[in-house]
Amino acid sequence: MTEPILPIVEIDGRPATAGQLLHPALSGYGHFTAMQVRDRRVRAMDLHLSRLDTASRELWDTGLDGELVRAHIRHALGDSISDASVRVHVFRPGGPGDDLSFMVTVRGPAAPPGGPQRLRSVPYQRPVAHLKSLGGFAQGYYRDRVAAEGFDEALLVAPDGTIAEGAITNIGFVADGTVVWPDAPALAGISMQVLQRQLTLHGVPWAHRPVRMADVESGAYEGAFVSNSHGVAAVGAIDGHRLPVDAELLGTLARLFDDAPWDPV
């Protein structure tokens, strides 16, 4: 059997044409979700479908058929791809009242972070942060800048020092046996929601609270971690401030995330 050539790009269940790609390439208006597929399964498929449906209702007052989304993913994977990185983009190529389109991209599977992550704070917060929107120029800009300085991820911070999220991750902190997510405008990442489910299921307390750079620098937290579709990783340092990576709860988080159930595509 011939191996499929990656990446695969399909729109509405068919190979994308150059004409169809013009709108998503030039418009930048829409939203998406990103997932890792293993053995044709995805963690928390219900959360991905809910994200797509909720965002579509907000942007265009139109809900999505979750089974149709899954069918488009299965079609893009074909019969021979079991493990992959998949994105589902939703956009409207026509005017008001026209149907929405789904663009599914399939790439090779992504490995989880290799070790503790080094973060660099940057003065930025995303507009309409609760939506996983297309584009993201500023996030890419800051990620490139911090990477050039030897950091793994940019940490988005408000002018008053309030921490929101990473450029492509959520960040959480550990304090007195509780997982603390910043109470600030941020995307509710799927992996973050998976962790919250797992923590609740296993009786581990978690909360949303304001988190400021001054708190991190004063040693108020016993550790920190980042999460996205690639996985969960401890944070070893933010700017010049080192954080412990051996906190017991950090290990528990990684185990709970790995134990989260996978759903058939």
- Number of helical runs? 7
* Largest β sheet strand count, sense and barrel closure: 9 strands, mixed
Gross geometry? globular
Indicate the low-confidence ranges by residue numbers. none
- Quick check: average pLDDT? 96
The portion of residues forming beta strands comes to 25-35%
Please compute the radius of gyration using only Cα atoms.
Answer: 19 Å
- Report, as a whole number of angstroms, the end-to-end distance: 22 Å
Count the strands?
A: 16
As an assembly, this protein is: single chain
Element string (H = helix, E = strand): EEHEEHHEEEHEEEEHEHEEEHE
Brief digest:
This protein has 265 residues and is an alpha+beta fold.
